[in-house]
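Same chain as my last thread, 354 residues:
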Amino acid sequence: MTGFADLPGAVQDDGVIAHYGEPMREQRRLASGDAIALLGDRAVVEVSGPERLSWLDSFTSQATTRMAPGESSELLILDPQGHVEHAAGIVDDGTSAWLLADAEDAEALVSWLKRMVFRAQVTVEPRPDLALLGFFAGGIAEEALPAGVLIWADPWEHVQSGGHQYATVAEHPSAGYAWRVASVEADAAAALAGHVEAAGLLAAEALRIAAWRPRWAAEVDERSLPHETDWIRSAVHLNKGCYRGQETVAKVHNLGHPPRRLAALHLDGSDDVLPGPGAPVFAGENEVGHVTSVARHHEEGPIALAILSRRAPDGDLIVRADGIDIAAAQQVIVPADAGATVDVPRLTRLSRRR
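reply #2:
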């Protein structure tokens, strides 16, 4: 976008601004609330009409019917087997529900939603005229935004009503992850460039990975269940009415275990090799998963998220990249015994009458 792309040092990758020459400094400034990141890899979809919230509630994983104007949430669209097909943040303004999706998924999401309209009083339209600006609440960046802009507050910071957290850590790294995304007219967004410090997507991604926050463009494949990435904490309401894929969600949560699990990896940086998404993860000689997201964090160094087999050991692992084995200290996010939250009573066998 003109403005942010024209700032000194801007480095683009696949059409988005990766950084401005100082990724670590950009991370610090972004985390402190003093910088804004142009999220060129995400898109906005407007769902308008009087039935929009009840309509979304009828087929997504989230309870949206009673959302108040200005309230933020997150939803998933699942296939009949409970696999994640689409994901989006949602914020309603009293007239329209605004969906924030990864750009790679936006076209398919719009197409799917339009097929579901039938006779409902809703309209679905992509909004390429809007830019998305990411920042952390409470700093200079928030104060610099135009008055009255619509802001989505990422619900990942806390376990949401109707949600459930599988991670058992004493303090979840999402505490304090006050991530916000503003939807701004393109011209107004461009006008901000030069008036507020800018950060690239590398900075935003590093902070996301450190918070263990899953993302459709990174952690989702054709096999993904929301349980595997602990996404139930923010994007699934376990007590809402029926929706596509709900049976699988309930069965895995109450009676079974997800076949895979998300883990955080702290990578050995001594070889200065950063593996890419898809890099295989090994426990000894056995391949047990793959990297989904990776970054260099300004405090933690090289970090990654990885999808592992449920039976992968909890200890240290190896990530293989460019023919080099990289030692990886594992933090368990989703435990192997996640799910099965309902105690099913054992039935004692009655002795045969003789």
